[in-house]
Design goal:
Length: about 375
């Protein structure tokens, strides 16, 4: 006597291998196929799949009976049961495809897309002219072998003044309208908002030694406000330290930079003797310009008819005392430095006449003067590439 387990789904006639011979597989198939064909939605179809092919499914139950059959019975019945399973599996799949296609048809019929409608406006930001100009500066100076350096905006008195040859009583300090912090720093040096990017010179020389070729763009602060002055503005500092550096290197570098930046070959510089505590000799660099349609346009010598000179930037050979305080031997190393207002460069190149809106955050101004963020931050991206 053989015992067979009976699952709830098994029909009485398929409880034993012998009884299988009497199972009407064709009838089962007929019924299964017609029920599958009649399934009206994916859920009903899934219900049928479980009913027939699930772990406890009726066809799965039939498959289990194969194990209890004699080899002869199995040879005869096996193909029928496997064939039944294949038929049902195939029917389930094709009904599924048909139902999905019908659902898609229905969706396409009910949802219409009007491709002629304008796309909704996606708000996009723009690159601020100051960022654009800083990127342009980095690009130009990178081509000349300069790295970008940076320093803190909250600076100490020593780096901002003393190390730049402006000791405590130096009259040049008064010209800087400095924002001081109320408390003395622990080391006795007063903290302040840096008034220029020049302290980055000292910090970089102390940290990296010589030779050096850097620019240091960044924010600076002075207690000053009118159409061309804001309490916060931007400068870029330049510093080259090497052996045998002289004023000729300075002039060539500035000329190359200004021609590349303003994209004009006819930029003419005038070096005028000046005074800065941190350079000796010091030069003020003027650039020739003319007024066209009420706008200042750079180019030509300031001595040409209809032209004049415009003060552009301060520079000079780094003062020996600054080199010494920055840890370098001035008999071995020389260098030049310069400092330019970034906002001023932007105003001149892109034609703004008031500095204050630069920092007002007025979207109309930003949309007008901003640059497309999709352009590369290269010089070419800056030409006529307004957003
Ligand atoms: N630090 C100066 C200022 O803020 C600008 C300047 C002048 C920087 C001459 C320099 C320089 O490096 O050599 O007004």
């Amino acid at each position: 006597m053989r015992f067979v387990s009976i699952t709830p789904n098994e029909r009485p006639e398929i409880k034993s291998g012998r009884a299988n011979n009497q199972v009407d597989y064709a009838a089962i198939e007929q019924e299964a196929l017609s029920r599958i064909e009649g399934a009206g939605d994916p859920e009903a179809l899934e219900g049928l799949r479980v009913e027939f092919l699930g772990k406890q499914g009726s066809i799965s139950g039939l498959l289990k009976t194969l194990g209890k059959m004699t080899p002869e019975e199995r040879q005869q019945t096996g193909p029928k049961i496997h064939g039944l399973r294949e038929m049902v599996t195939g029917a389930l799949a094709s009904r599924k495809t048909a139902l999905e296609a019908a659902a898609l048809e229905l969706r396409l019929a009910s949802e219409t897309i009007d491709l002629s409608l304008p796309a909704p406006d996606v708000p996009t930001g723009s690159v601020h002219p100051v960022s654009q100009v800083m990127d342009e500066l980095a690009e130009i100076f990178a081509d000349l072998g300069f790295a970008v350096a940076s320093g803190p905006e909250i600076e100490d008195d020593w780096h901002n003044f003393t190390a730049l040859n402006m000791p405590e009583s130096h009259p040049a300090r008064a010209m800087h309208d400095t924002f001081y912090f109320p408390d003395d720093a622990p080391n006795g040096g007063r903290m302040l908002l840096r008034t220029h990017t020049s302290p980055v010179q000292v910090r970089t020389m102390l940290a990296q030694g010589a030779p050096l070729r850097i620019i240091a763009p960044g924010r600076v602060y002075r207690s000053d406000s009118d159409a061309t002055h804001t309490p916060m503005f931007h400068q870029v500092e330049g510093l080259v330290i090497d052996r045998d550096i002289h004023l000729g290197h300075l002039k060539w570098t500035l000329e190359t930079f200004l021609k590349a930046f303003f994209e004009r070959e006819d930029i003419v510089l005038r070096l005028r003797p000046s005074y800065f505590p941190f350079t000796e000799p010091s030069v003020e660099v003027d650039v020739g310009f003319a007024v066209e349609k009420g706008r200042r346009v750079l180019g030509g010598s300031g001595d040409d008819p209809g032209h004049a000179w415009m003060e552009m930037l301060g520079s000079g050979m780094v003062n020996r005392r600054v080199l010494e305080m920055s840890g370098l031997d001035p008999d071995e190393w020389q260098g030049f430095a310069f400092g330019v207002g970034v906002d001023r460069l932007a105003m001149l190149k892109y034609g703004m006449d008031d500095l204050r809106p630069f920092f007002d955050g007025d979207l109309r101004w930003l949309r007008h003067y901003g640059f497309s963020s999709f352009d590369q931050p290269t010089l070419s991206g800056g030409v006529g590439a307004r957003a």
